[in-house]
Design goal:
With 351 residues, the chain is an all-alpha fold. It has a two-stranded antiparallel sheet. It has eleven helices and two strands. The mean pLDDT is 79. It is found in: Cell membrane. It is a multi-pass membrane protein. It comes from Petromyzon marinus. Belongs to the G-protein coupled receptor 1 family. InterPro entries: GPCR_Rhodpsn (IPR000276), GPCR_Rhodpsn_7TM (IPR017452).
Length: 351
Amino acid sequence: MNESGSNDSSRRCVWTFHQVSCTSSDLSAAERTTLLAILLSISAITIAGNILTIASILYFRQLQTRPNVLTLSLAVADLLVGLLIMLFNAMSSVHNCWFYGRVSCRVHTWLDYTFCTSSIVHLSCISFDRYVAISDPLRNNDSITHAALAAMLALSWFSFPIDGLAFMLQWNLVGLEEETRWSCPDDCEVILNLPYAVAITACAFVLTMLLMALAYDRIYRLARVQSCKINSLGAQVQKASSDAECLSKWNAMKRDHNATITLGIIIGILIAIWMPYFVVSATEPMVGYQAGPVAWEVINWFTYLNWMANPILFAAFNMSFRWAFRLLVMCSAFRPGIRGVDLFNFKERPA
């Protein structure tokens, strides 16, 4: 979301190669090279991490659950951010210039808002799924029906692309003719008028974050009760380790409890990362667009860290994904019987 609205008349437009007119860069060649390497590394980690998440769910049978369909869909959205948004924005951020045409700038901005908002909505749906799972962990597959899952996927993917079309039609620039005249033609800056800034902040951030916070508050209360049940049932499992039904209940509750903790950490990081962007985005029209391009670039790339962090958090706090990632990275996933292994209780270090 390469947003900027500074009306600094001292900004100089220069003609670069391919006949594009952009703001002159204050960085030296060495600084541009270093910054580009850092931004491309962030993009590469985002792409690789989400490919690992997708491959893990598609390959390991234990991860092919109905709730993990949402996790798979989230990873696809995050992967698209890495491939279609971050790689192009890396060049634009370093050179203060969009080299790919003015129409593609609007398309890129539309996709940027669409994929990023889709990821946020995915996490809202996963919060609802966690609430159902921890409320009744032994009947989770029956509680989340195919119809409910399809509805959540449709909401995640198709509710906000229409909103992003405003950038294609330039509705966000209505009434901002004075501010936009300071921009160089090929800077690919995004400026939001007050109604649009308030609307997108309310819908894409405030509403979804409020729903996630309320859901997770309820989830946390249930998780504390479930933790006591896990400890109690664990004692029973130790006394009757041959009881398959008791062991199955204990493992199911532990997996759901583990997933709930992971989700809570992801939501907390999501709110912390996105808060600066939406606060500045909503207040910029009210204070006369005082944030400069550099400030916006820092804020934008700070939000992109969210999509890089999700796979890392899955590996750090979810035992099943941790072992799935490890087996894939170490090329041990194709050993006989590994595809159907119990990842949650997998203790043997792969050879």
